[in-house]
Sequence to fold (241 residues):
Amino acid sequence: FRVPDPQKVVGTAVPAGPDTFFARHLQSGEPSSVFVGEVAATGEARMSFFQTIRPTSVPMDKPLVLVVSRELAALYTPWRTQALTNIGWYLLLVLVTTIGLSLYQRRRRQDALAVQQQQTRRQQADQDLRDSEARWKFAIEGVGDGLWDWNIQTGEAFYSPRFKAMLGYAEEEFGTTAAEWEQRVHPDDKPRVLAALRPYLRGRAGSVRTEFRMLNKDGHWQWTQGRGMVVSRDAMGRALR
Fold:
């Protein structure tokens, strides 16, 4: 609350024009009024509250008008400060959100690119494997040889279609174990063949070659030349495959 400077107000007649706050209050006939604008007495921009007082217990020929006012700048300063603060926080939130979304989208693009590159590498590896298998099949079966692959630990074995066909068997008529081969080796040849394999299974390098008879599908003994080499060993040098 501030009392106007007496040097500026006291002794100064309030303009009585119809546009003054005072005149507009009286003309309204209301007991109270609020006006915002330039005050005629001082020329300041203020908000003014007018209250007309007519006490019934006191004989008065004129009403008493009470006026309270405040500079607009002082009224709006807290609001303006709060508004600027809110705007500042909003802009900061927008900035942080924008940066966060940008980093998130960038990470998503990087992850998507990594997945795409991984899929491309996998597809290329699969294609390389198919090409390698096609070359291997051509190289082996192109010269008329049958291929075998023996896993010593599990007893499982792979026999190529050409291997089976050489003995007169179809694809599904020949099993996938080492016993399929061993049970078809001639009993007189089996000790010699196993003896030839034994040094290489125990650690000798190089490849073995031996000839023996095998029983074909027609029940006849068929001379066969077998070649092999160890392609995988354990830490002690013993053959695994």
Residues 72-142 form the longest helix (71 residues). The radius of gyration is 54 Å.
